[in-house]
Design goal:
Helix content is 30%, strand content 23%. The relative contact order is 0.17.
C-alpha cells in the first residue's frame, strides 16, 4: 500500500505567530510531525506543503521533501484540501492512501500512524480513518444554547442531570491523524469522507495548538508524553 503523508505548514499564523517554527521540547513544531512520519514503517513519501522559504528550509533539515505552495493557496481562508490537491498534482504519482499530519497536534507516535494504515490493510471497505479521543468532562449533555435573556437551553434533550458515568460516550477529533483513500478523497473532496472509522487515542495527551494558551498546555504535557510514549 502506497502511503503519502502531507504536512501542511503555512508561514502566517494569527493565533500563534510563526507557530510551525515555535520550539516544543527541543525542536520546532514542524519537526515533530516530520519525525512521526519518518519513524513510520508504512509511509512511502513525506511532503511538507508550505508558502514559507524558512519553513521549507527547516523541513528539509529534518528530512522531509518540500513542495512550495502558491500564495493563493496559503491565505487565512484557504482550505487544506486545496493544498493537498496541489501537492498530489505536483507529484504526478499515484498513492493508495493520503495521510494529513497537522503540526498543531504534535503528541502522536509513528506506532499510531502504522496502526491507522493497518486498519486500511485489514478492511478494504473503509474509506477514511480519523483520530479521536473520548470526551468525558466536555460532554454535549453539559452544553447549552442561550435563549432570550440568557435562558439556558440544553443542547441535548436528555442527560442534563445524568451522572458522567451514565452518559453515552462521545468522541472528539483530536487533529492528530486524518487518513483517507485517495479515490475517496478526490471523489468527495474532503478528508471527512462519509465512510470513515475512528482511531481512538488517549485523551490525557490532547493538545491542539491554535492559541498561546494551547501552546503552554502542550509544553506542560510534552515531557511526560515523551517519557511515556517515546522514551519507555
Amino acid at each position: 500500500m502506497k502511503v503519502l503523508v502531507i504536512i501542511p505548514a503555512r508561514g502566517g499564523s494569527k493565533g500563534v505567530p510563526k507557530k510551525n517554527l515555535k520550539i516544543l521540547g527541543d525542536e520546532p513544531l514542524i519537526a515533530h510531525a516530520i519525525a512521526c512520519a519518518k519513524a513510520s514503517k508504512k509511509t512511502t513519501r513525506i511532503i511538507v506543503s508550505t508558502d514559507s522559504e524558512e519553513i521549507a528550509e527547516v523541513s528539509k533539515q529534518f528530512g522531509s521533501e518540500v513542495i512550495l505552495r502558491p500564495e493563493d493557496l496559503a491565505t487565512d481562508t484557504s482550505n487544506v484540501v486545496t493544498a493537498v490537491i496541489h501537492v498530489y498534482q505536483e507529484l504526478k504519482e499515484d498513492f493508495d492512501v493520503i495521510v494529513l499530519l497537522q503540526t498543531t497536534s504534535p503528541l502522536r507516535t509513528a506506532t499510531d500512524l502504522d496502526n491507522i494504515i493497518t486498519l486500511f490493510e485489514k478492511d478494504n471497505n473503509i474509506d477514511g480513518v480519523i483520530s479521536v479521543v473520548p470526551m468525558d468532562d466536555m460532554h454535549p449533555a453539559r452544553m447549552y444554547n442561550l435563549g432570550d435573556n440568557d435562558a439556558l437551553i440544553p443542547f441535548l434533550t436528555e442527560g442534563e442531570t445524568a451522572r458522567r458515568q451514565d452518559l453515552q460516550p462521545v468522541y472528539y477529533r483530536n487533529g492528530c491523524f486524518y487518513a483517507v483513500k485517495t479515490d475517496a478523497f478526490f471523489k468527495e473532496n474532503s478528508f471527512m469522507v462519509a465512510n470513515k472509522k475512528a482511531y481512538v487515542m488517549n485523551a490525557e495527551w490532547l493538545a491542539n495548538i491554535d492559541t498561546p494558551r494551547d501552546f503552554k498546555i502542550a509544553e506542560i504535557l510534552y515531557q511526560d508524553w515523551k517519557d511515556e510514549n517515546i522514551n519507555h
